[in-house]
């Protein structure tokens, strides 16, 4: 316990020089570290899982919205074709589409709400962990296995490769059918993860790996029809071939 006091003051000094969201996450990681006695790598992983669990209601709401929009797409295409056939002007088209969105309780910008929440959290967590790795000396002995020093890059490239593999697996296993372009873009991004992250400290991957594992598990659970029915998530119907 005595050995933890220097780390607490170090984290407080780092957090004092950080923006509020970043500082709050740094204090959270430090609280987990001090209260549980876990090493830094495990404290980061546990704090990551906590934040991801807290986001579940937002993620479920986001899934409901995107499912509604996917179900709405055939109606939109049919309506747009009908409007073109009758030569409807731009103002009337927008009014018709707006009415269709309102009828189904969504809007073209509704999916952005989830990104506006999850995006800042992702960035804040990244900066929080990186700043701790750069300024807290005990991070040098805060790892385990081959990554004992969390302040240096992984010279074996295991953590960057594992992060890319988990991201790719999540895309392949959890993406909806019909999103071919999105899937291919995600595959390219998965490949680029490795060279772009080789120089990052190992502490960052103590956040990314658990986060990707959570995404993979969450996606697999939400793919089950019975889970979607329980949560009230719209399920697309497959029309029989003509």
From TrEMBL:
- One MF term in GO for this entry? membrane insertase activity
Top-level division of the source organism's lineage = Eukaryota
List, alphabetically, the InterPro entries matched: YidC/ALB3/OXA1/COX18, YidC/Oxa/ALB_C
The way it spans or sits in the membrane comes to: Multi-pass membrane protein
Determine if Transmembrane is one of this entry's keywords: yes
Please name the source species.
Genlisea aurea
What's an example Gene Ontology biological process for this entry? Answer: protein insertion into mitochondrial inner membrane from matrix
What family is this protein classified in?
Belongs to the OXA1/ALB3/YidC (TC 2.A.9.2) family. Belongs to the OXA1/ALB3/YidC family.
Q: Which UniProt keywords apply?
A: Membrane, Transmembrane, Transmembrane helix
Against NCBIfam families, the record matches this protein to: yidC_oxa1_cterm (TIGR03592)
Task: Give start-end of the signal peptide.
Answer: none
Q: What is its main location?
A: membrane
Q: Which GO terms describe its cellular component?
A: mitochondrial inner membrane
Localization recorded for this chain is: Membrane
Q: Any keyword Transmembrane helix?
A: yes
According to UniProt, the name of this protein is: Membrane insertase YidC/Oxa/ALB C-terminal domain-containing protein
Q: Per the database record, which ranges form the Membrane insertase YidC/Oxa/ALB C-terminal domain?
A: 40-218
Entry's transmembrane regions: 40-60, 112-129, 156-175, 187-210
């Amino acid at each position: 316990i005595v050995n933890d006091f220097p780390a607490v003051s170090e984290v407080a000094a780092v957090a004092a020089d950080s923006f509020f969201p970043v500082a709050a996450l740094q204090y959270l990681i430090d609280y987990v570290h001090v209260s549980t006695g876990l090493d830094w790598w495990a404290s980061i992983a546990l704090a990551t899982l906590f934040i991801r669990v807290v986001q579940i209601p937002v993620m479920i709401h986001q899934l409901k919205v995107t499912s509604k929009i996917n179900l709405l797409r055939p109606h939109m295409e049919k309506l747009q074709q009908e409007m073109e056939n009758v030569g409807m002007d731009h103002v009337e088209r927008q009014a018709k589409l707006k009415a269709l969105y309102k009828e189904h309780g969504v809007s073209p910008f509704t999916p952005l709400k989830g990104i506006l929440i999850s995006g800042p959290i992702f960035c804040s967590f990244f900066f929080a962990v990186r700043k701790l790795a750069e300024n807290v000396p005990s991070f040098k002995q805060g790892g385990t296995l081959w990554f004992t020093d969390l302040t240096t890059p992984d010279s074996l490239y295991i953590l960057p490769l594992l992060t890319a593999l988990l991201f790719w697996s999540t895309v392949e296993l959890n993406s909806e059918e019909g999103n071919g372009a999105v899937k291919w873009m995600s595959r390219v991004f998965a490949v680029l993860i490795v060279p772009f992250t080789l120089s990052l400290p190992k502490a960052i991957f103590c956040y990314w790996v658990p986060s990707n594992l959570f995404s993979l598990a969450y996606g697999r659970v939400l793919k089950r029809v019975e889970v979607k029915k329980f949560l009230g998530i719209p399920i697309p119907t497959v029309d029989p071939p003509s």
